[in-house]
Amino acid sequence: MRKLTFILFLFPMLLHGAPDSQSLDEILCNLDAHIEKREDYVQEKQRRIAALQDELKKGAPEREYDLNYSLFEEYQSFKYDSAYFYAGRALELAVKTGCPDRIAQSRCALVFCYMSSGLFLEAFDEMKSIDARHVSDAVKAEYFALYNRLYYDASDFNTTENWSREYTRMGTLYADSLMALVPQDSYKYVFAKAQREIKHWHYRECIEIYQSLLEDYEVSEHEKAIINSSIGGAYKALGQADSSMVYLARAAVNDIVSATKETTALYRLAEMLCDIKEYDRAYIYIHAAMEDADFYNARHRKLSINPILPIIEQAQLEGMTRQRNMMGLIVLLCVVTIVIIVVAFTLFRKQHKQLIRKRQQLVEANRIKEEYIGHSFYINSEFIAEFEELYKTISQKITVRQYDDLKDVAKMSKINKKRESMYESFDKCFIRIFPSFVKEYASLFPEGMIDPASTELTSEMRIFALMRLGITDSERISKFLNYSVHTIYTYKTRAKNKSLVGGDEFEKRLKSVEIG
Predict the structure, then answer these.
(1) Which structural domain range is residue 502 located in?
(2) Cβ contact 45:259 at 8 Å
(3) ∠ at Cα 97 (92, 100), nearest 5°?
């Protein structure tokens, strides 16, 4: 039961000629490749034409009509002017010979030229001049097939419903006449049947018939183009856009390979691609179709293309505008991103530098603390030992009631000497931490004023040394140096006035002296 269900599901697809497994995108890519090299196929056709023309120039009278008609066949879907010329020349030769078949055949050639160029009035007039009563069945079949196509084409291009319906009716009569004349298994019969079905909106039936033509008959590239284009039209009428575009793309490839310039597939495909917003391909295809129409000089094809061309070009322009706007937006976003990155990097570097400075300050502070804590332990222990000795001496003097000797003990404390010793210890400790301080300090004054190799600090230098240690409060500095606050200001001002740089720069330079 499952197998039967599958077969019933698959059968309509096979029956109606569904596209094969090749995807639309693959077929369009194949068409793109053929468009790029279409000039190669044109040159190949031109070589065949040149060979026939060379043979015609050699002057074989018995073959003159055949060669002119063969040249018409090469030009008939390639170039209108040349096709018309050789059809006219063939008619002149046919009239001279008085052969009914050749006269009818060459007049049919002229009708094809008129029809392909959109000159339907001239085509109908020429058809009326053809006497098909005394021609062979082969020529009569061509006559019926041409009348069938002429009426159907006129129906397609006539916008008046009554006339369009009448042209379709007449075309169908000639299709029936053709089918009554040729064998039922012939290509002409099956093709006419398919044309009749499509004009009467039997789209699924005509797709099946067209598929049988591709599968069961040997057909030329030009005939394949006509069949595939017709299948594409039927699928479009059924609302199956993808399938329609597949067959129109195949028809366009067949047209390129056969160097056919009188075409419909390419511009119809461009129109459908425009509907699905494939503007880039639609733009290429519509311009290629217009080039073909110009080359062939097909007036009615140009009329069909002209309404579509500005729509596609406008869509292409809008697409390019959107792309430019998008590119502008992307560039703007890139610029904003770069600015954000630069700002972030600048802030990071700034913070990084601040962290480095903080770290250096911490290292510096730790170094200073280590130096001065160690030094203070030594000084304090020395001070305590001296204080103990002084305490013992005073205690002994009081015990033995030697009060007059206490004055001498007070002199022994030598406070000023100890203060000088403290300054000397401070100088050594500071220079050990900032070995370049004296040199940097000396560089701020005229040469020779300060000895850069000195290992001792002057009173003025000690003020700025304390400031380098972070002690900027003048009162604290004055207590440490045993000066008044006024004296501290005086020393600072005097040093700045003697220096080679301004006051603020003077302090900044000294505060930036690096730890050793």
Answers:
(1) 414-516
(2) yes
(3) 90
